[in-house]
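quick one, three chains, predict together pls
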Amino acid sequence: MTASVLLQLLVSGLSVGSIYAIVALALVIPFKASGILNFGQGEIVTVGAYTALVLVGFGMSYWLVLPLTVVIGLLAGIVIERGFIRPIMAAPEFTLVIATFAVGLILKSAIRLYWQDNPFALETPLNADPIHFAGVVLNPLYLWVVLCTLLLVVFLAYFFKYNRLGKSMRAVSQSHDAARLMGIGVERVLMISWGMSAAIGALAGILLAPIVGINPEMGHLVLKALVAAVIGGFTSLPGAFFGGIALGLVETYSGAFFGSTMKNIIPFVLLVVFLLIRPYGLFGKPPVVRI
Amino acid sequence: MLSVENLSVQFGGVHALRDIRMSVERGEVRGLIGPNGAGKTTLINCISGAVVPTAGSIMLEGKGVAGMQPHLISAQGLSRSFQHVQLFGERSVRDTILTGMHRQIESGLFSMIFGLPSARAAESRARQYAADLMQQFSLTDYADQPAHSLPYGLLKRVDLARSLAARPRLLLLDEPTSGMSEEEALESITMVRTIARESGITLLVIEHNMRVMMKIADSITVLHLGEVIAQGSPSQVQQDPRAIEAYLGEESADA
Amino acid sequence: MSGQSGRAALWWLTGLALIVAPFALGTYHAYLVNLALINIILAIGLNLLTGNSGQISLCHSSFMAIGAYGFTLLNNLYHWPVPFAVVAAVLLASIGGYAVGYPARRLSGIYLALATLAFLALTQVVIEEFPDLTGGIRGLKIEAMNWFGLPIDHKYLVYFLLLGCTALGVYAAKQIMDNRLGRAFDAIRTSPQGAQALGIPVAEIKLTAFVISAAYAGLAGALLSMVVGFIDPVEFGVSAAIRYITFIVIGGMGSVAGSIAGAVALTGLPEALRPVKEYSDLVYAALLLLSLLFMPNGLVGLASALRRKP
């Protein structure tokens, strides 16, 4: 194993990890705000990818498609929250879990109805020749993914720390009642957090599309994102980020050293280990126990 | 058979219980009274394992149980009722009481699934005992109704029957007569005491209804602001100045 | 009482119909009946775990897979007689249930859902990564079965074995629900605190629920491979797991009647959807969602609500 190979693995590990991190963030944001885990998040990623496909098909430039996809994702998230989530928020946990699965399945089958299982490619300006740097061959797509993720993380950090809406979201995450007392429109905040989550998911979709191709089963990666969120802790945004990156790196390196079987198994082994030993993840906090 | 020493519970800055010392004899009926917020439920919670004390010890028949898991403490022969009656979905009154007897019924998985005689016999013995209890608490008419459809007072009786059905050695009752009429309360609690005496069950009862308490308790422990402020026979406690002050203080606050 | 004797007559009729079925029906309809019986077994097991004990299981298709592959491999590789292979398959699936239930007994809600999802993903990986054993994604064909050399037509043997297993499954479930284990299941779902206070070992009961439920699923899996003659791993993925959950949500959670109602109703559905097969996932998911929202007690809940109205 030469240094350059290790570096190569690092880059692909980071880029895979970045996708996991993005989707993990998309999972954690509405979970913190509303306590609901969206098992249909993978399909939102898929929707993002197909949206980009359609827009590119209209002849739009990638640089326009990217923000447009994110905005469409935002709107979709708001519609989903209003239409499906709001009515069932008070339902027992089982209902919520299965309902989000069902919504995801509906999205996936609808996509499959129109596009069938044909894989599509997404043409982007970044599908360019590899860059050679310090003896390492770098795929610009991977670099772009990592860059976008870093920008997203910086944006979110700023948003939640300084922006008024971001701060209200943090308040709502801690306590709906307390936030309401402070005059925060909790319903509006919930709507926005789901909107943000879908927007981020759509971003993951358009970033992922050129790398793995567009197909209805793309959303399968949500399983890995869930693992990342468990590792990081469902109540922690930085945790989701680090969980994703860590998982991407562990997966990539174990694939290289131990083969593809290990690579496929290791995320779920990690999941089980964490659920047993540290279900709240590295950075998460257990829910406050009421007497 | 129950011995509590130096028991303290702290939630953040709040001292729910402070250095509690209490000792209950086997077969005794001990009352636990005190104004709201005195820590009575917290104490019960510690004994049953729902709360882990910050300090101190709880010995149940010589075995330390402080901080143990609730079902393991129950396995030591403890049962309790809750202020808000815990019901089991759509289950009937009969089934609810039978659930209390889970540990008593000797039927293994295999014999249960295949309907073998040993399981059938164990179940029918249990049903007989449940029927007896229902009769003692005048619940027979409601036996097959879903428990949740009963009015609160009746529910409390079901709860009592259920806790007794478990045939514990120590039974903790948290406000067992709340929501009952005066007549119902005296009737039910007297039935509980009778059954307890017959079965050798030790009772620790939190009660707000003084008449009820005075009638059935062998001795009473008075809590106030997390501390034991009086202990003794009912008549002693009735005349204890500290106890009177604690209650008077509450009465004037309510007025 | 005419209601009682009417009900009894219905049971006798159904029983008679079921016994005559394989001789009276054409291949296709007989196949449907077989499928319905298998789904009943699966649904009953799942309902005990989710409807009664309140534990989400997203990996029930995996327990089915263990039963199916277990039976098929014992049959293909070692020519075990059918009844022994079935029992072994059930035991293997139960071990799978233990493997999931043991670590999961202290988990609940989404963490439990995730643990079961992990198990599902793991079994899928195992199926795909060991194609020499499992046939990989191409699936596995059942070779000739060993019925102790009985001169009876194979399809009748399969049917009556299936019918017998279904009857046993229904009986066992009723027994459980009428005894202390069933009461304990309901107790730990509705009030784990109350159950604990009565000395019910919640974690142990959760584990028992997983093992029993997995046994049912394993039985269903073994019987499925017998009926179809071929194992397709697609039957054991997340979509399938959601479909099985649909049985109990639409039929009615927590009752044997609900399991039967949901399984029978939804076995008919894919056939009704045959002309528009591509819509089947969509229809399933939509039905599931609507049922969760508007028919929380399922078909049996609907039936009893209608009966109560004068």
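Chain B has ten helices and ten strands.
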